[in-house]
Amino acid sequence: MGGRSRLRAVLLGIILVGLAGVAQSRQEAPLATATPAPAEPAVTPTPAELAPTPTPEVSPWFPFRPMVDEFQPTVLDCSRFIEAPAGGHGSVRVNDEQFVFEDGTPARFWGAEIEVFPKTYMDYAAKRLRKLGVNAVRFRSLALLNDPQATSVLDLSADGMDQLDYAISRLIAEGVYVVLVLDEPASVRFTRADRVGALPQGGPAPLAAFFDPEVARLRLQRMRTLVMHRNTYTGRRYCDDPGVALVEVADDETLFSPEIDKLAPAFRVRLERAFQDWLRLRYRDDKGLARAWDVFGRSPLSRGEGLAAGQRIALMPASEFSVATLSHSPEKKKRGQDQMRFFNELEQRYWADCRSVLRQAGVKVPLAGSDGAAAGFTTRAHLLGQSQFDFVDRHGFWDLPAGAGDQAPRVASALFHNLPMVKETGASSRARRELGRGNLVLGKAWEQVLGKPFVIGGWNTCLPNEYSLEGPGLMAAYGLLQGWDAILELGYLNPRWLSQPSNSPFDLLGNPAQLLQYPAVATMFYRHDVKEGPLLAEMLYGTDEVFDWSDDRLPLAQEAGFVGKVGYRFTASPRAGALEQISGLWNEATRSARSVTGELIWNANDGLVTIETPRTQAMIGFLGGGERRLNSLMLASPTRFGAVWVTAMDGERSIAAAEHVLITVVGPARNTGMESAQTGQIAPDRDTSLWRVTQEGTSPLQLETVRGELRVRSQLAERLKAFALDYNGRRRGEVPIKATPGFVTLTLTPERHAVYYELALE
Fold first, then answer.
1. Quick one: pLDDT band at residue 581, thresholds 50, 70, 90?
2. Average model confidence (pLDDT) for the chain?
3. How many C-alpha atoms does 703 have within 13 Å on its Cβ side?
4. DSSP states of 315-347 as a string?
5. What spatial distance separates the first Cα and last Cα of the chain, rounded to whole Å?
6. For residue 57, what is the DSSP state?
7. If pLDDT is split at 50, 70 and 90, which confidence band does 45 have?
8. Residue 500 has pLDDT above 90, yes or no
């Protein structure tokens, strides 16, 4: 298939509701507040739809037409893993670098970032999230709390608070815990009455709380008000509600972010003056500064810069904080290190004030500062500050499209790389290097701060990359190996299925090829089917070594993150870090890594990741090229790219012994009539051409069938029956299978329009 045709398989999508969906004739119908809308009748398949063998004329693509979920028990229902209401085991605590509930029950979260939906849709969304296996959500934005008529930033919108109260109450009622982010600095607007000196007319003040006392005071007061607010629907204050599992101070807030270069002029002047004062205390005068910053007899100071009256010290832009800078400007090294130290001290002071205010207000659950957006070696400095909190949150995205100018990336207009993550590692010369690590999984693995619970509070393998379906399985499997405590995908962003395609690269409800895998992924995650690996290597830094102008000192190949647990560790004084050899588990020539547990293999040359445990077996990536074999799963398929899962659904029983087995087969998706093409523009971070969507397409969304022969090992082969399921897990009809001693063979055909099958002892 050519490049243009392949990209038609882009997972773009339609802004979807409630994950169950509305049949196309009813897509715009609102859902009731307390009761979900009635379901469409079950589809009765014709004999042709359930035929065992496709005809050559049948297209592998079929329209995706989900229906409203009536929430009847089915094999897809993951609510059995999620106790309702949330909070039954008490509040979340930290014990031995892991989350636990008050009664000692381990706490681990799989979920999504979401919007606060209107009440009309929140009941249904909460039920659907629980059924999908989501037990925690992080609110993406609380901009609805801003009152446009407010006289102060402290005046929260009454309507917005009511919507937030209701959303939290419905989620908790369904067993879905809440990660509450108190401040989104980019959307919070100060007013004239707030009398912020640098904002005489009011407006937003991102990053200013770190160095502007008035902004900090107002934000701290606003946070205090929010956590002490009493929920109208639960009767509990947010700080007392055990269903509020975790609290974060701010979203995407750090002085080490590239956003520092966009600081408003009045705030920039204040920050530069504060830096100048800090340097005076450290070096006293220009002579002391010149001695400290001298590198090989060269000074980094420009004309007019210095510590004397009437002079200034400009901030180095974030873009210059790279090892490459020193190859042509070595004199900037010590200046840049001092700027990092200064930023770190400002952040530490503000974060300490936040912790104090929130604890005094009554917050008992674990606290984090901000996920931040630092990149390169300045990430260490940001994470050093975050390590002072109870847990660390980091975000990351694979093939995040580039928007035009300062605009947010939009699917229809953005540039993207269109490379599959399964083929990219640190050893790949063209890899989109997530913080220098090769891909999203490796990037997050090495960012883990050892000794602290680790949260991936926002991630996505983004649209319009045509391989984006690979994300959920890879993040969940390797998150289990790494021992991550919460993995929340951005995001569940729209409350209903709409008739128009989504234009957001993050919209899970427009990316059904990801969501359709959630039942299998969540089952694997909650059962811990993939075992946590031992600690292989730690990047050990003394607190001052963090500011070295150098890339991270990786003790092993980056691909060690595919093998076992890795990450940062910060210490007061240097010492030797843990280090285990991975010879035999990572082969650079074949770019293949086997986990130390033996359950995961990442073969980048083939572009295939396999999961092989007694109860879950899966293949994610390029499926063609002959028969693929695992212990209980064998596949011979002409389908180019997809995900195939075989999941035992009977408690502790293995696939071979299970009386109920869920089969999930998911191929790429595309909008009807969607087109994309390479632009000829070479990406600056790799030797490949960028892509752009040339025709966005329309509904209905099309799904590609995973075709071929699928064999499943079973001791009950001759007694099992197979059923094709609809998107809610209801049986559509029996399908023929071939039973031989020890195996069941199922022919996957496009006529069935099925992504789910159930093998059952009937």
1. confident
2. 88
3. 30
4. PPPGGG-STTHHHH-GGGHHHHHHHHHHHHHHH
5. 41
6. T
7. very low
8. no
List phi, psi (to 5°) of 425: -135, 180
For 490, half-sphere exposure in the C-beta direction (CA atoms, 13 angstrom radius) is 20
Specify the DSSP class assigned to residue 423: G
- The rounded distance, in Å, linking the Cα atoms of 152 and 174 is 35
Average pLDDT (481-487) is 98
Q: In sequence order, what E strands does 668-750 have?
A: 669-672, 675-682, 689-695, 698-704, 708-713, 720-725, 731-735, 738-740, 743-748
Sequence-ordered alpha helix ranges (H) in 232-377: 265-283, 286-293, 325-328, 333-361
Residue 498: CB partners within 8 Å, gap ≥ 6?
14, 15, 16, 17, 27, 28
Question: pLDDT band at 762, cuts 50/70/90?
Answer: confident
**Token pair of 405 as six digits:** 């100018």
Tell me: pLDDT of 70 over 70: yes
Closest alpha carbon to 217 in 192, 184, 240, 195: 195
| pTM for the whole structure | 0.90
Beta-ladder partners of 61 = 704
Rounded average pLDDT over 747-751: 94
8 Å CB contact between 117 and 140 = no
Mean pLDDT to the nearest integer, 332-339? 96
Contact partners, residue 164, CB within 8 Å, separation at least 6: 116, 139, 142, 144, 145
Question: With b meaning 16 or more CB within 10 Å and e meaning fewer, what string describes 344-379?
Answer: bebbeebbebbbebbeebebbbbbbbbbbbbbbbbb
Location of structure tokens 């001052």? 544
pLDDT in tens, 278-299: 999 999 999 999 999 999 889 9
Q: How many other C-beta atoms lie within 10 A of the C-beta of residue 406?
A: 6
**Do the beta carbons of residue 513 and residue 667 sit within 8 Å?**
yes
Tokens of 493: 């962003």
**Axis crossing angle, helix 333-361 with helix 265-283, rounded to the nearest 10:** 110
C-alpha to C-alpha distance for 382 and 360, rounded to whole angstroms: 25
Which residues on neighbouring strands pair with residue 745, listed in sequence order?
A: 711, 738
Query: Other CB atoms closer than 10 Å to residue 513's CB: what's the count?
Result: 28
Distance CA 599, CA 477 (A): 9
d(CA 644, CA 36): 31
- 39 versus 703: the higher-pLDDT residue is 703
Q: Kindly give, in sequence order, each residue whose CB lies less than 8 Å from that of residue 407, ignoring residues fewer than 6 positions away.
A: none
Q: How far apart are CA 377 and CA 317, in angstroms?
A: 14
- Evaluate the CA torsion angle 11, 17, 21, 23 in order and state its sign: negative
Least confident among 100-114, 481-495, 591-605: 481-495
Cis ω for the linkage preceding 85 (within 30 of 0)? yes
Q: Is the pLDDT of residue 219 over 80?
A: yes
Which residues have a Cβ under 8 Å from the Cβ of 545 and sit 6 or more positions away? Answer: 574
Helix (H) or strand (E) holding 610: strand 608-612
